[in-house]
TrEMBL record:
<keyword id="KW-0496">Mitochondrion</keyword>
<dbReference type="GO" id="GO:0008320">
    <property type="term" value="F:protein transmembrane transporter activity"/>
</dbReference>
<keyword id="KW-0677">Repeat</keyword>
<feature type="region of interest" description="Disordered">
    <location>
        <begin position="53"/>
        <end position="106"/>
    </location>
</feature>
<feature type="compositionally biased region" description="Basic residues">
    <location>
        <begin position="72"/>
        <end position="83"/>
    </location>
</feature>
<feature type="repeat" description="TPR">
    <location>
        <begin position="475"/>
        <end position="508"/>
    </location>
</feature>
<dbReference type="InterPro" id="IPR019734">
    <property type="entry name" value="TPR_rpt"/>
</dbReference>
<keyword id="KW-0812">Transmembrane</keyword>
<comment type="similarity">
    <text>Belongs to the Tom70 family.</text>
</comment>
<keyword id="KW-1000">Mitochondrion outer membrane</keyword>
<dbReference type="GO" id="GO:0030150">
    <property type="term" value="P:protein import into mitochondrial matrix"/>
</dbReference>
<dbReference type="Pfam" id="PF13432">
    <property type="entry name" value="TPR_16"/>
</dbReference>
<dbReference type="Pfam" id="PF00515">
    <property type="entry name" value="TPR_1"/>
</dbReference>
<dbReference type="GO" id="GO:0030943">
    <property type="term" value="F:mitochondrion targeting sequence binding"/>
</dbReference>
<dbReference type="GO" id="GO:0045039">
    <property type="term" value="P:protein insertion into mitochondrial inner membrane"/>
</dbReference>
<keyword id="KW-0802">TPR repeat</keyword>
<dbReference type="Pfam" id="PF13181">
    <property type="entry name" value="TPR_8"/>
</dbReference>
Length: 618
């Protein structure tokens, strides 16, 4: 079985949430060139038009990967250049100035015995040479350095390049770049000296690709990944994304940079609840059950736990958490009440991204009441978040052994199958859940989405129409049906559905803001109306300031307009809202890919037009 990505296995269907969390993985190239497209070619629709062929996700309208799987899967023989960029080997790349093998037979000697022959011993001797003689001597010294390099006599080669720099009137970027290559082959390598020489080479020729790559590789070895991303990004764009090794280096450095920064951030920041939209969606995926009964002679803990459940019903999530913690500290008099308390606290630990803490609390809940089915289902979600599918399915089986008639078990197991792409099994579980209780709206919605994913479009559309008839006062079906319509580019109908969802949920607490973001995307794809799209996303943030999907969409819209600095700020905000390490890594990756793009356009403004051509496939 393929490894399962971290998921909120019990969350109701929401393809837009999935789109936001996976966007970086599917748009490695586009995030680098998006602003160039908007600035140079006015092709604001590029990112979405290239992403518009649905391959699906957790819902109806997730965009596909823009990369070609066939090209990525081809095994290519490693060249010396590839090995250098990947940090393999000891001698680096061949210098571009070394004489090709077919010409070596005509040479008198590989290198003179006195490799510094002809170099004046003092300033007076140097002053006696004309400028032309000095430049010719510099070229000779460069050639000697190249031959010494090919013999792996790197320190002697460095002497030649250094003398070439000293004697030449006209400075040549090649001298510095070749000397930099020698430094990387010292034992141990002198990467700082390599960076300094590449700096000098690039002052003389700022589009000197070999110097850029050497500096990028040295920066990576020095763990200066942000600067390495900048240089590898420049190489990738200048070479029209033809150098797979450089493109792979961008991803590699971004991954290391993001993982390191995420670890530092998580170690120092305080836990924070996600957006009310996210919390309410997760909680809505479980059928409601009665809150714990307060005993005739309640303890303080019993009363506080009752208040915690009152706060939960009022969607006052901050007080829910503080009250359930207080109740556990005070002591709860019944096993059932205590199990409910640990279940509730474990739920919120899961929601803030503390999977291990959630696991401990849910296990405590099950120690107290082993047949507490909801705790089994929730701990299955935790195991999925931890990438442990085997134990997740074992949890579902245990839940069934305790109460095979609980419809929640089959709904949530269906969600896991759905996320894994096993739609037949997902539909079977959804249908089982519906047989046991057909009043739960999300099971119907998700079954219809799964049919759509299987290509049974007519059946899915018919199912959605039935859901709309059977649940006329609920806004969720209109939102998800709108996504199905949007995926088929039925723009006007999809917008009408999103508007209907907003209308039906206007008195809901907390408000569901996803229809606002979906409508924004629909208007952007339909009419390329960025202003309207931005306005809708900002309206969503007025309602729910922590809506990560709205923030991610605003970042993408900013990139489309060439507002890279603005996009960076949105990506930073997205990182602040990230619930899990994976989400934080994604946000940091976006941010630094955008920073690299901004640096490229600042340092190489003449390439803005080329970015537009690349984006349009010219």
């Amino acid at each position: 079985m393929a490894p399962v990505p971290p998921v909120e296995a019990a969350a109701p269907p929401s393809s837009i949430v999935d789109r936001a969390t996976r966007w970086v993985e599917e748009n490695q190239k586009l995030i680098l060139i998006g602003a160039g497209v908007a600035a140079a070619a006015g092709a604001g629709y590029y990112l979405y038009s290239r992403s518009g062929e649905s391959k699906g996700g957790d819902g109806a309208a997730a965009p596909p990967s823009t990369g070609s799987s066939s090209s990525k899967n081809k095994k290519k023989k490693k060249t010396k250049k590839d090995k250098f960029l990947k940090g393999e080997g000891t001698t680096g790349p061949l210098l571009e100035e070394i004489t090709p093998p077919e010409k070596k037979a005509d040479e008198k000697a590989a290198v003179v015995d006195d490799y510094l022959e002809g170099v004046p011993k003092d300033e007076a001797g140097l002053a006696a040479l004309s400028d032309a003689e000095r430049n010719a001597l510099g070229a000779t010294l460069k050639d000697r350095g190249n031959k010494l390099y090919s013999k792996k006599e790197f320190k002697k080669a460095v002497e030649c390049y250094s003398k070439a720099i000293d004697v030449s009137v006209k400075k040549d970027a090649v001298f510095y770049s070749n000397r930099a290559a020698c430094y990387t082959n010292y034992s141990p390598p002198e990467y700082e000296l390599c960076v300094k020489d590449c700096d000098e080479a690039l002052k003389l020729d700022r589009t000197y690709i070999k110097a850029l790559k050497r500096r990028a590789t040295a920066l990576e070895r020095l763990d200066r990944d942000e600067e390495a991303v900048r240089d590898f990004t420049a190489c990738t764009i200048i070479e029209r994304f033809q150098d797979e090794a450089a493109a792979a280096a961008v991803e590699r450095c971004l991954k290391k940079l993001a993982a390191r920064r995420a670890k530092d951030i998580l170690a120092s920041r305080e836990s924070k609840l996600p957006s009310p939209t996210f919390i309410s969606s997760y909680l809505a995926a479980f059928r409601p059950h009665a809150k714990p009964t307060v005993p005739e002679k309640p303890t303080d803990g019993d009363n506080t736990l009752s208040l915690a459940f009152d706060a939960l019903e009022a969607a006052d999530y901050v007080h829910t958490v503080s009250l359930v913690n207080e109740a556990i500290e005070q002591g709860i008099s019944t096993k059932q009440g205590e199990a409910e308390a640990y279940n509730l606290r474990g739920t919120f630990k899961f929601l803030i991204g503390d999977s291990l803490g959630a696991k401990a609390d849910l296990e405590k809940s099950l120690d107290l009441v082993p047949d507490f089915v909801q705790s089994w289902v929730k701990i299955a979600s935790v195991h999925m978040e931890l990438g442990d599918a085997t134990n997740a399915f074992a949890d579902f089986e245990t839940a069934i052994s305790h109460n095979a008639a609980d419809p929640d078990i089959y709904y949530h197991r269906g969600q896991v199958f759905f996320i894994m792409g096993e739609h037949d099994k997902a539909i079977a579980d959804y249908n089982k859940s519906i047989e046991l209780d057909d009043s739960f709206i999300f099971t119907h919605v998700q079954a219809a989405v799964a049919q759509y994913k299987q290509g049974e479009v007519a059946k899915s559309m018919a199912a959605f129409r039935r859901i709309l008839r059977n649940f006329p006062e609920r806004g969720e079906p209109s939102n998800y049906y709108g996504e199905i319509l949007l995926d088929q580019q039925k723009f006007q109908e999809s917008v009408e559905r999103f508007e209907r969802s907003i209308e039906l949920d206007q008195d809901r607490k907390p408000r569901n803001v996803l229809p606002y973001v979906n409508k924004a995307l629909a208007l952007f794809q339909w009419k390329q109306d960025i202003q309207a799209a931005e306005s809708l996303c900002k309206e969503a943030l007025d309602i729910d300031p922590d809506c990560d999907v709205a923030v991610a969409t605003l970042a993408q819209l900013s990139l489309q307009q060439g507002k890279i600095e603005e996009a960076i700020k949105w990506f930073e905000r997205s990182g602040n809202l990230a619930r899990t390490e994976g989400e934080l890594i994604n946000a940091i990756t976006y941010e630094h890919a955008s920073r690299a793009q901004a640096a490229f356009l600042k340092n190489f403004p003449e390439f803005a037009e080329r970015l537009g051509q690349i984006a349009q496939g010219v």
